[in-house]
Amino acid sequence: MSSLKIRLAAGAAALIVAASVGASIPSPALAAGPQLEMSYDAIGDVDNSGRLVGAYAYNRGDEPASDVTMTFDASGLRDVAISVPDWIDYCQLDGQIVTCELSGLAAEHTEWSHVFELKSKQQSKPGPAGTLKGTIRAFGPDGTEYTGGGDLEVTIVESGPDLVASTADINTANEPVGGGDVRPIAAAIYNDGDTPTGDWYVQIWVPTGAGIVEQYSDCEYRDWWPGEHPDGYVYGPNVVTCPAPADLDPLGVGEGLIFVDETGESLFHVAFGKNLRGPEETGGSVQVGLVDDLESERAPKKLTRKGTSGKAFADAVAELKPTTRAASRREGNTDNNWANFAIWTKANTHDFAVTAEPVSGSIGDIVEIPYTVINNGPSDGAAGWTFKAPTGTVLVSDDEYDGPWCNFSDESGHPVKELPEVSCSTEGEFPAKASGYQGVKEKMKLRIISTPGDDGTLRVRPHPENAESNPANDEVKLVVTVGGSGGGLPVTGANAALIGGIGGGVVAIGAALFFVARRRRILLVSE
To answer: How far apart, in whole angstroms, are the C-alpha atoms of residue 171 and residue 276?
Structure first.
């Protein structure tokens, strides 16, 4: 089955064709008044990944039609659901009936539009599914009602395997976790398709401040902040990817594997460090897929490593119920391959600090102020910082470095070269220095217009603000003098190696946060 994106592209192409055809419908003898008909831009073959359907509304008559209504009745279909995507605002769903409104149809004109989506139910039997009844109604110039129709024969086709991830929240808001805590991950996978799976993999993500405990020798691990860390700090592994054991049969139709038993014992656990942010609700995720699709999910080899224990994932699942081996197909529906779990964390504190070196120059000079922003911990966090130029000076954007941190824009969002006040941010997490990240070490350019005042400041804005343990080092003076000691610093670009290193960290953070956009399925473990 084609993906939705491909079907949308095909629909757009069909619209172009329809527009060219509908501009003029040749007919030796046009019917008096509107003459209404309907047809569809797709055949009626559907599986459980869904098919988006478009409809053509024809007026083959010699007069225009107004208040055009198309109605599609799917109540006679077997094991097929009809739905209307949110972005189709001109159609409404009521039970199994979709009603679409068009403003009108000119004489000899054709109108095309997406109208609904059909999807077969999980594990439904392939074969004829019945007829979808289509009706079109409109009014002629004299108020007379005209009707027409167009039906769609629907057939259910094999869907292939449909791997589904399932999970449960790690804890509740009433029982938050913090440094030193360990909790099981309630992961499970199922095959909701109508054919057995091929070889599959499972992948688990946890946030910064947490780490996956098990170090299976046949699984790959990824750390957002690799390296050695002080005792009590946890910086990964943040992602584990485990392919199914080679001798494990594929998951059959309707079968699954639950990685946690009724007592709470699990194949995977997550440990939390004293750098875990809080109090807040964060989360992780479970993903399942076919091994053939795994390469697109893998990180570069330099970011992955094998588990360090002698125990293998294959050993851990050896006692789980195997399935009957059979021919398999590629997976058609990957929308439900992700499941998110929530994590509620205990209150924690961090200590953000800023420094700025004094500088000196002559009136008219552009000088550079070296500064640092660092998180002394223990908690990871996030932060922005704001420069306020001393009177008699102005902050200057860097032509050589167009980085994401400092925003030189006016109130309308247009870029400008100079501002009296500028806000900056790493646009991501700002871990404690125990992670190995040594914070921001940069320079801000400043032009001396006249004798500088003593009212310039650099202030960090920690987030969450109420977690800041030492507000006294959140702000420093910007000391700029004319002449005297200190000297004007050379105007140079940002350190490329530093920017590249931090930029890589921000990319990794972005990947770590991506899973929060995925839907969550709740795992219910029966006694």
So the answer is: 15
Task: Check for a shared fold between 36-156 and 352-482.
Answer: yes
| Phi, psi dihedral angles at 313 (to 5 degrees) | -60, -35
Task: Indicate the pLDDT class of residue 364, thresholds 50, 70 and 90.
Answer: very high
Q: Provide long-range contacts, Cβ within 8 A and 24+ apart, for 410-416.
A: none
- pLDDT value at residue 53: 95
pLDDT band at 290 (very low <50, low <70, confident <90, very high): confident
The angle at the Cα of 241, spanning 237 to 247, to the nearest 5 degrees, equals 140
Q: Under CATH, to which class is 36-156 assigned?
A: mainly beta
d(CA 323, CA 68): 53
Give the model's confidence band at 337: pLDDT under 50 very low, under 70 low, under 90 confident, else very high: confident
**Does the 352-482 domain belong in CATH 2.60.40.10?**
yes
- Left if phi > 0, otherwise alpha if psi is -120 to 50, otherwise beta: which for 227? left
Please tell me the pTM assigned to this model.
0.65
Helix (H), strand (E) at residue 314: helix 313-316
Q: Return the half-sphere exposure (C-beta side, CA atoms, 13 A cut-off) of residue 270.
A: 30
The count of C-alpha atoms lying within 13 angstroms of the C-alpha of 325, restricted to the half-sphere facing its C-beta, is: 5
Block residue for tokens 């140079």: 492
What is the DSSP code string of 13-29? HHHHHHHHHHT----SS
Contact status, residue 136 vs residue 36, Cβ threshold 8 Å: yes
Say if strands 45-46 and 152-156 run parallel, antiparallel, or are unpaired. parallel
Tokens for 514, please give them.
């991506």
Secondary structure element (H or E) that encloses residue 8, with its range: helix 4-22
Contact in structure between 64 and 32 (CB atoms under 8 Å): no
Domain ranges (residues) in the chain: 36-156, 163-348, 352-482
- Residue 11 half-sphere exposure, CB side, CA atoms within 13 Å? 23
The CB-based long-range contact list for 291-298 (8 Å cut-off, 24+ gap) reads 291/198, 291/199, 291/200, 291/201, 291/243, 291/244, 292/198, 292/199, 292/330, 293/331, 293/334, 294/201, 294/241, 294/243, 297/203, 297/241, 298/220, 298/241
More confident call, 90 vs 504? 90
Query: Which strand (E) or helix (H) includes residue 329?
Result: none
**Cβ neighbours, 10 Å, residue 463:** 16
Phi, psi of 515 (to 5 degrees): -65, -20
Class in CATH terms, 163-348: mainly beta
The sign of the torsion formed by the CA atoms of 422, 428, 432, 433 equals: negative
Q: Is 313 helix (H, G, I), strand (E, B) or coil?
A: helix
Q: CA–CA separation, 350 vs 372, rounded Å?
A: 16
